[in-house]
Amino acid sequence: MIEDDTVVIETHGRAGVVTLNRPKALNALTHPMVLRIAEALTAWEQDPAVDHVMIRGAGERGLCAGGDIRAIHADAKAGTTGSLDFWRDEYRLNARIARYPKPYVAFMDGIVMGGGVGLSAHGSVRIVTERSRVAMPETGIGFVPDVGGTYLLSRAPGELGTHLALTGAAVGAADALLCGLADRYVPSDFLEELVRDLTEGTDGAPADKVVDRYALPAPCSGGSGGLAADREWIDRCYAADTVEEIHSRLLGTGLPAAREASETLHAKSPTALKATLAALRRARALDSLERVLEQEYRVSSAALSVPDLVEGIRAQVIDKDRRPRWSPAALFQVRPAAVERFFAPLGEGRELTFP
């Protein structure tokens, strides 16, 4: 058994419980954590005493802020390939969660980003609260949404997923439900009692039925209409075939929210934006999560050798000057061949594959 106190594996009553245990790092996901979770899922799948699995984050800030991007930065800067091994096991875990034969209950309370989405949004029972902030913010660090993120976002209503993938915007509970990233809203005050019911409940009810006892309609953040109120301009603008045309349509609406989205895109990596749009459009045409994860592995592998990933992490996480110097710096400078490179075959023995 893998020993690693950054993830706590326990059995309580009829539940197998995974607790991500790096609260000071907002439970950022490491390779050993991925392996430990996979090992636990294997054990519980064959354990008749475990009716369902629960995953949650230690501390009060959130489930998981994503992968350990400091480690990815060091790997990319050194030109080594440890991140490829991490992603291979992480993406396999994402697919396994989606196909897990027992109910998989994810507590998406607080911050849930990047790899945290991969650990939760593929589950069968996905709970958000009024504190939830769910996002795939990869374009801000010169990366492309992964962990099945392009699968999920490409299947959100209309072009909502395109908007979220390109801007990296974080959404609250109501919008996470609308976009298909979650399926239950439970106020945070109810979580402690819900956990007790899931672990110690004696009526034998299935996990989804237990959660339904606590679920309520999700309030819109701040009383606004959220993404539902913006569907008209989002669908119209993000249906464009290029990022340049999306920019143009956003500015052409004359709407403050659309102009703000355009300004957000302007700050992202031009290469990452174009690769992300291409990945989303291709993911929409693929027939399963596994096929999309195979594509994402190619994309992530290519991103590891693109200068923007090292620069984006430097600006946002290492030096924190928030002033990345993207290369190339403008959308028109990103040639089609540079985007196509993200989808090129990796060669025999190097691809991520599923049965």
UniProtKB/TrEMBL annotation:
Q: What GO molecular function annotations does the UniProt record carry, in alphabetical order? A: 3-hydroxyisobutyryl-CoA hydrolase activity; lyase activity
Give the E.C. number(s). 3.1.2.4
InterPro entries found in the cross-reference section: ClpP/crotonase-like_dom_sf (IPR029045), ECH_dom (IPR045004), HIBYL-CoA-H (IPR032259)
Which reactions appear under catalytic activity for this entry? 3-hydroxy-2-methylpropanoyl-CoA + H2O = 3-hydroxy-2-methylpropanoate + CoA + H(+)
Q: Per its UniProt entry, what is the enzyme's top EC class, as one word?
A: hydrolase
The protein's UniProt keywords, in alphabetical order, are: Hydrolase, Lyase
Is this entry keyworded Lyase?
yes
Q: Which GO terms describe its biological process?
A: L-valine catabolic process
GO CC annotation:
cytosol
PANTHER family xrefs = 3-HYDROXYISOBUTYRYL-COA HYDROLASE, MITOCHONDRIAL, 3-HYDROXYISOBUTYRYL-COA HYDROLASE-RELATED
Q: What is this protein called?
A: 3-hydroxyisobutyryl-CoA hydrolase
Species source reads Streptomyces lavendulae subsp. lavendulae
Underlying gene: echA1
